[in-house]
User: Which sequence fits this backbone?
């Protein structure tokens, strides 16, 4: 059964359908309505590297819908440490579960697992590759704020080289005709092959190292964390990272409806002074991970979300 | 120096396969790809670095008493995409074969990206590279989606 490995597994119409389903599931995600659509179903959480939000939100999504979850647990104490191949691990979990959510340090692991499994695989991040469930919750958050996805001005800032969330998101936004501005230090620029792929798909892309200068036209500013270990020394890091921090005082000339997003965890790229502004959306975004994943779980398990869930969306 | 002169640097073969227009210096690699070495019983002749109008210099390989099949030939596309291949029977060209990679190269080479899941030699699923274009040759790993480094690819032969 096909899963969700990259955003290419969904058409634009399918993306919008999943977002509509997610919207209707909001009262269920908030715990206001109990809707056991996935009762009797089991999700296998296979996280081969650390994850807080993705793993927990999958687990919450499954349980809010009446389903159950089994976890691989700590890789250090599982059979993986004994040298079990991914193929064998997936074969085993495939037999125990109805659907698998997976994160793996190696790129291509999700597709590999899908080829090895009968049940659908939800890619929760494979190396520097794809993270489509994050993209779905990002798209949900953007549509929630702006009422649409098409034709927006989106600034993606920080570590665009290693950040898999921005890779998947850029592809998806391109499909909806958004204008993309990539604001990053030279060392952490969006990989050239991704930029050329995006342009080949008709993307309108601007590359800059000036985040603050890009703010006034933005409808969405998507911040990412710049990691110290990417730089040769701490001085270089300090010099560069300073230009990719947002403070409430930077937001005077921005559009009223502009939203600031971040896949979290943040370190100091968004100052706490921003949290109280009307632009901050990163905590809602993290919550939206639950509804987006609920909608995806239903879709991949062929369970329809009823038109009227009850409660208030 | 003519084409005819190049071909006669080594004796004409009675039956077998002639692979012409191999990029200069790649003949050994081609033999390696075809699994032809000292353990093979067939006689092999080759010339390296001979002049070529089209390529400047080139290599030519003649494998006696063995007709390569299409699958074997398709492997050649990775190192010698412009090679001309002729099947010889009774000293005459009986068949000219063209290289056709198809849509996917399966279990011929490993992905060149160091962090691809397929770099674990114990993982049992086949190595799969999708053919995006043949001129120029563009391949992407089925699993990790990375474009392949063609220089590095020939070192990753299975």
Assistant:
């Amino acid at each position: 059964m096909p899963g969700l490995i990259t955003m290419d597994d969904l058409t634009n119409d399918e993306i919008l359908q999943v977002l509509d389903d997610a919207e209707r599931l909001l009262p269920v995600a908030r715990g206001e309505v109990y809707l056991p659509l996935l009762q009797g179903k089991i999700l296998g959480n296979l996280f081969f590297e650390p994850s807080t939000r993705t793993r927990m939100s999958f687990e919450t999504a499954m349980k809010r819908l009446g389903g159950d979850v089994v976890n691989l647990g700590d890789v250090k104490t599982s059979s993986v440490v004994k040298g079990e191949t991914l193929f064998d691990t997936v074969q085993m979990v495939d037999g125990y579960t109805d659907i698998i959510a997976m994160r793996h340090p190696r790129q291509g692991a999700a597709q590999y697992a899908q080829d090895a499994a009968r049940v659908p695989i939800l890619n929760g991040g494979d190396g520097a590759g794809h993270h489509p469930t994050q993209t779905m919750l990002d798209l949900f958050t953007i549509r929630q704020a702006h009422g649409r996805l098409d034709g927006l001005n989106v600034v993606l800032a920080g570590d665009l080289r290693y950040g898999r969330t921005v890779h998947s998101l850029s592809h998806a936004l391109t499909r909806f005709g958004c204008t993309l501005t990539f604001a990053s230090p030279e060392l952490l620029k969006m990989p050239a092959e991704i930029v050329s792929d995006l342009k080949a798909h008709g993307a309108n892309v601007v590359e800059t190292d000036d985040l603050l200068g890009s703010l006034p036209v933005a409808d969405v500013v998507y911040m990412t964390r710049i990691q110290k270990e990417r730089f040769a020394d701490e001085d270089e890091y300090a010099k560069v990272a300073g230009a990719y921090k947002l403070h409430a005082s930077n937001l005077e000339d921005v559009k009223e409806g502009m939203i600031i997003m971040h896949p979290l965890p943040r370190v100091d790229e968004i100052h706490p002074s921003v949290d109280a502004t009307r632009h901050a959306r990163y905590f809602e975004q993290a919550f939206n991970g639950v509804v987006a994943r609920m909608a995806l779980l239903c879709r991949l398990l062929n369970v329809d979300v009823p038109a009227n869930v009850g409660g208030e969306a | 120096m003519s084409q005819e002169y190049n071909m006669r640097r080594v004796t004409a073969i009675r039956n077998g396969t002639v692979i012409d227009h191999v990029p200069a210096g790649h003949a050994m690699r081609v033999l390696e790809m075809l699994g032809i070495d000292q353990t093979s019983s067939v006689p092999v002749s080759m010339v390296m670095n001979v002049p070529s109008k089209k390529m400047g210099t080139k290599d030519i390989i003649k494998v006696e008493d063995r007709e390569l099949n299409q699958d074997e030939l398709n492997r050649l596309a990775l190192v010698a995409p412009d090679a001309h291949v002729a099947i010889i029977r009774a000293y005459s060209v009986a068949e000219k074969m063209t290289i056709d990679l198809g849509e996917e190269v399966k279990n011929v080479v490993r992905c060149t990206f160091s962090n691809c899941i397929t770099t674990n030699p114990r993982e049992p699923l086949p190595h799969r590279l999708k053919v995006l274009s043949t001129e120029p040759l563009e391949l992407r790993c089925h699993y990790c989606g990375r474009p392949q480094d063609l220089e590095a690819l020939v070192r990753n032969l299975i």
Notes: The CA atoms of residues 209 and 244 of chain A lie 9 Å apart.
